[in-house]
Amino acid sequence: MKAVALTRYLPIEDPLSLFDIEMDRPEPVGHDLLVAVNAIAVNPVDYKVRAPKDKIEESPKVLGWDAAGVVEAVGPEVTLFKPGDEVFYAGDITRQGTNSQFHLVEEAIVGRKPQSLDFAQAAAFPLTSITAYEAFFDRLGIDVDGRNAKETLLIIGGAGGVGSIGIQLAKLAGLTVIATASRPESIQWVRDLGADHVINHREPLRPQIESLGLSHVDHIALFNDTDGHWDATADLIRPQGKVVSIVENERPLSQSVMKSKSASLTWEFMFTRSMFQTPDRIEQHHLLNRIADWIDAGKIKTTANNVVRPINAENLRAAHKQLEAGRSVGKIVLEGWH
């Protein structure tokens, strides 16, 4: 089967940072599905894993943690899917990734593909949907069915992949969404997705929040630059409020203001359930199916903003380079093998 892989961790400008390769097709066992991958999406985790470091893989490593495709075969213990089913999922960071024609994934973290979307549009959703859903409804404790309606949520990094789906999920839960964006195209993007207010994360946040008639916000989602936005976040979160971050910090985060407010910081990493084989990992199957229902009901718009064909190393390197530059809007998707 065709795949895109690496053996060394190199700058993305190096042709060997990601290269085309032929690999043996895997076979499913246990609760695994073998999926014929039709489309993939690229996420920051891809370039973070691929980042240059002193390490050499003994056998080719395949990256990629977003896919939409068709179940080709199933392991003997599979109960949720059958061959021919169309699926979408984000996979498991401890296993080979989705940048291959055929891919093994545990059924518990797979959802049915939305019927109203083609494979390319569907591939844009899994990782970011799981991340935003877990961030809001599991980590921040917001009620998915609207019991926190009218509370304020500040999303720092509203135009990225997670922010793009996060705005829509927050609006479905009835929240007042304040999203950050800085360029004309990203400002328009978040407005079109339903943000009630847009502020510029490149300018001081407090004056912009106060211009909305607010002194604090009820919830904050750090979807960009935790280090750079931490002081403003601690200042703006309401007393006894909660902050969720998906971006690791590189410097110590002062907790003095958070302590005085009895405020909380929680982390979201969508691979936690698969990485640690938590007993509740079936929740990712359920939430992906719920996302698919919302999409098919017209309640969620696509977040794919750039579909590239075909899936190959050259196009993946270009996608990594664009994401690393930090200027992408929505999701980058690759479709089709040639």
From TrEMBL:
InterPro entries: ADH-like_N (IPR013154), ADH_Zn_typ-1 (IPR014182), ER (IPR020843), GroES-like_sf (IPR011032), NAD(P)-bd_dom_sf (IPR036291), Zinc-ADH_QOR/CCCR (IPR051603). The keyword Oxidoreductase applies. It comes from the Bacteria. Keywords: Metal-binding, NADP, Oxidoreductase, Zinc. The keyword Cytoplasm does not apply. Residues 14-334 form the Enoyl reductase (ER) domain. Pfam families: ADH_N, ADH_zinc_N_2. Belongs to the zinc-containing alcohol dehydrogenase family. Quinone oxidoreductase subfamily. This is Zinc-type alcohol dehydrogenase-like protein.
